[in-house]
Amino acid sequence: FFLLVGGVILIWSAFGSRRLKHSLTLVLSAAFPFLCCIIWFAAKGRFADFWENVFVEPAGQAIDFQEKLQLLATHFELACRHWWLCWAVTLAGFFRMLRSGDAYQKSVVWFFILSIVGVVSAGPSYPHYFVLCLPWLAWGFAAGAQWMVEQWKNTGILLVFTALLLPMVLQPRYWFVPDYRDIERKVYGMNPFPEMQSIGSKLRQELIKSGDEKLAVLGSEPELYVYTGKTSPLKFIYHYGMLQGGENATAKQQKYLSDWNAAQPEWVVLPSADIERFSQLPVFQTIIADLKTNYAVAGIIDIYPGHTVYNWSPQPTDINKSPSWVLVFRKK
Fold it and tell me: CA–CA separation, 105 vs 12, rounded Å?
């Protein structure tokens, strides 16, 4: 949506001007990775999968606009907390662009609005989705900074540098001695992103003995395949899209179960979020029953807000102690 609508707006705003060539280059460069994905899936004979996951499934998801507006309000407040002076400069730049009479400059402001609409009107959202706003914010800040320097000379330069340095002064630990685990917890909650790196290292360096041993992740944590150097034995590396509802829910779930039965991986990683989301689905209950019967627990990872406990030598009676956890299974 953002690519298509944004491209049309950009080309339309530049049509008939000398900037049309540059606009076309920008649109094509933004579309190039997307086109490469389409070509790759089509070459693999999986264009239908691409279409299903990129267009059909998101379009079928219900949108809670009240929740989206709350998300926008929460993260806008966080974005302004230490950056209010930068926002002031950026808004001045937007105001100048709108008054410029140049359709090309005005389109930057509309792109910023379109970026917010694109995030808020989408399906499930994470805070990093607002990265779509950054190019237009940066452009607005540059325009505002230029206007301030032109109007107030040295005073304007001082204000611009103050706006850039203020976030670093207010958050020195974030900029100079960052705690990445703490940052990930604040942004993504209890999602096991930091833990997946440690789990991947443990599997790659100590537990997986042969390159032929297969690893499956029952969840949407494809980064584990990168950390272990493995490829997914299942057709889909994202778990949620295959198990949540929708027009073809039953067919997708049966396809997922068929992939599982054919793969029979030696190692399985299961995050707790999947139990919470899909525990009532018959297909998921079948997979869990297979894990209980044919696999042994090789690792229990309990995730707490301030720390994580790794148990790589669990006893048969050991269970997870935290509401957020990851289990590692080894085939018997």
Answer: 13
